[in-house]
Design brief:
The protein has 205 residues and is of the alpha/beta class. The chain has a single domain, classed as Alpha-Beta Barrel (TIM Barrel), CATH 3.20.20. Strand 4, helix 3 and strand 5 form a beta-alpha-beta unit. Bound molecules: iron/sulfur cluster. The site of iron/sulfur cluster (SF4) has 10 residues, from loops.
């Protein structure tokens, strides 16, 4: 059984892909895990089709969740067109749909070779982007993007664009090995792009 949707702390999480253009040093995907603290078997044996994902979503009492979160065991923006279509379908069928969030590495536009931010308008309420470093050097050392430092710039550009279309754009960092100065630098960077910074506690693997 593969897990397309799962519940965690009152939210519904949606897992549509294993693919990612990064290889973060902390990523559970290449540490031999098939699950996480959230759910078992998050490794998808195939990418769910739009219909499979919709069926999984519609089998849930969608209005009862605090939030619906597209994240995944990979980078959800590979499926950005399906995410938008799924949100449209859910909004049509479920009055009072809870807020919808995407957790992303911010490479959606880089991956697709076009600006995907306008598609988020009216569909996505919160975008959460992993900042993972206060400089391009630190970022690429931690996330190891296929595109190298272009990945850093793409992530910043996406954040700035997303802030034009999405009510709440958040950049996240984990406080491990960060000085107050690093965090302040990240905060200023996020604010300069129209985003807020959220500092998360490090959870050991
Ligand atoms: S961006 Fe996310 S899915 Fe991709 S390698 Fe990093 S932690 Fe893993």
């Amino acid at each position: 059984m593969m897990t397309i949707t799962y519940e965690y702390e009152g939210a519904l999480y949606v897992n549509l892909t294993n693919r990612c253009d990064c290889a973060c040093v902390f990523c559970l995907r290449h540490n031999g895990h098939k699950g996480s603290i959230y759910a078992d078997d998050l490794w998808l044996d195939h990418e769910p089709s739009f219909q499979e994902a919709l069926d999984s979503l519609m089998s849930r009492d969608l209005a009862s969740y605090r939030e619906i979160v597209f994240c995944g065991f990979g980078e959800p923006s590979y499926r950005i067109d399906d995410i938008c279509a799924l949100v449209d379908a859910m909004k049509e069928k479920v009055p009072g749909l809870p807020p919808v969030r995407i957790n992303t590495n911010g490479h959606g536009s880089l991956i697709h070779g076009r600006d995907v931010a306008p598609q988020l308008k009216g569909r996505i309420d919160v975008v959460s982007i992993s900042l993972n470093g206060s400089t391009p050097e630190e970022y690429t050392a931690v996330t190891r993007p296929q595109s190298g430092e272009a990945g850093w710039q793409a992530m910043l550009d996406f954040t700035r664009e997303a802030a034009k279309y999405v009510p709440q754009v958040v950049m996240t960092i984990v406080n491990k090995d960060k000085t107050e100065e690093d965090i302040q630098h990240c905060r200023e960077l996020a604010q300069s792009l129209g985003a807020q910074l959220r500092v998360r506690e490090y959870i050991p693997d």
